[in-house]
């Protein structure tokens, strides 16, 4: 990372490179114009901080007259507009000139912290299905930085994956109120639903046998669907939830419909699978 200049020009042709860099450090894109007075007061502040922080973030300058398509892509309607990218996506922004103290407050929460290495290790362990290692790394990350929300989130995911539903639920309930609408938190709340449904349930093979023996065993079917979601087998899980809806809409206080919506959330709310099963769910309900 130290080979990358702290200040660069942002162009449409090379913007994907900046998105990749944002996976390691924040990339602050300043949309500006030569004719913009406030831009001329903000740019020196951003430049000073980029030099002071010595690579902890990258300042990318985008001249909207030269990069009109880039500005349109990110909905820039006035300048200066500053958008901060992290992990490949925009996560924060402001418009208009700001004093240095406010710009620092804008950037600092997104800077890399010592716990980040452990958080990344925990995520990689989860991808390998090494739950014990994920829990160890996540707990160590939180011990290093108790107030760091990413450390809290990765620990919750590890706990849910490990079936530690009570502790995970308590930690979700303790998250800051302003985090509740965050997609990452919504995803964890969806995972919580399936972890609770699968808690103390028989293994998948036993549940499959129970459903095969009695297709009307809605509890076994519901728990089997939760197991399937946890394994990433979303379509068969949705089929089981759909079967429950068709047999008994009121099962578990509308549990099947709620579970289908939670699966849609896990899948990002879009895509062919979501579209197909939204339609099937609507048919089953109405």
Automatic annotation (TrEMBL):
Record family assignment: Belongs to the thioredoxin family.
Identify the residues that the record assigns to the Thioredoxin domain, covering every copy: 1-112
Q: Name one GO cellular component term.
A: cytoplasm
Gene3D superfamilies in the record: Glutaredoxin, Tetratricopeptide repeat domain
Instruction: Name the source's superkingdom.
Output: Bacteria
Kindly give the SUPFAM superfamilies that the UniProt entry links to this protein.
Thioredoxin-like, TPR-like
List GO molecular-function terms, semicolon-separated: protein-disulfide reductase activity
Task: Give UniProt keywords alphabetically.
Answer: Disulfide bond, Electron transport, Redox-active center, Transport
**Official protein name in the record:** Thioredoxin
Protein species of origin: Thioalbus denitrificans
Pfam families to which the protein is assigned, alphabetical: Thioredoxin, TPR_19, TPR_20
KW Transport (keyword) present? yes
Which Gene Ontology BP terms does the record give?
Answer: response to stress
Check the record and name the InterPro entries matching this protein.
Answer: Thioredoxin, Thioredoxin-like_sf, Thioredoxin_CS, Thioredoxin_domain, TPR-like_helical_dom_sf
């Amino acid at each position: 990372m130290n080979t990358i200049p702290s200040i660069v020009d942002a162009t449409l042709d090379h913007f994907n490179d900046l998105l990749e860099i944002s996976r390691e450090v924040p990339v602050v894109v300043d949309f500006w114009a030569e004719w913009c007075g406030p831009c001329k007061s903000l740019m020196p502040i951003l430049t000073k901080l980029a030099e002071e922080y010595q690579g902890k973030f990258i300042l990318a300058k985008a001249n909207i007259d030269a990069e009109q398509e880039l500005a349109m892509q990110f909905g820039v309607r006035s300048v200066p507009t500053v958008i901060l990218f992290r992990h490949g996506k925009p996560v924060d922004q402001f418009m208009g000139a700001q004093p240095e103290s406010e710009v620092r407050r804008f950037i600092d929460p997104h800077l890399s912290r010592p716990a980040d290495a452990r958080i990344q290790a925990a995520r990689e362990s989860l991808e390998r299905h090494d739950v014990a290692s994920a829990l160890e790394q996540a707990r160590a990350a939180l011990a290093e930085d108790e107030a760091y929300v990413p450390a809290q989130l990765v620990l919750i995911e590890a706990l849910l994956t490990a079936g530690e539903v009570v502790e995970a639920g308590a930690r979700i309930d303790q998250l800051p109120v302003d985090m509740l609408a965050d997609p990452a938190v919504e995803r964890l709340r969806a995972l919580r639903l399936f972890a609770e449904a699968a808690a103390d349930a028989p293994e998948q093979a036993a549940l499959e046998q129970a459903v095969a023996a009695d297709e009307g065993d809605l509890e076994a079917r519901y728990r089997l669907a939760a197991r399937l979601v946890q394994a990433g087998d979303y379509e068969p899980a949705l089929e089981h939830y759909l079967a429950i809806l068709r047999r008994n809409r009121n099962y578990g206080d509308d549990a099947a419909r709620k579970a289908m919506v939670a699966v849609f959330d896990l899948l990002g709310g879009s895509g062919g699978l979501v579209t197909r099963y939204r339609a099937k769910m609507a048919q089953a309900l109405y």
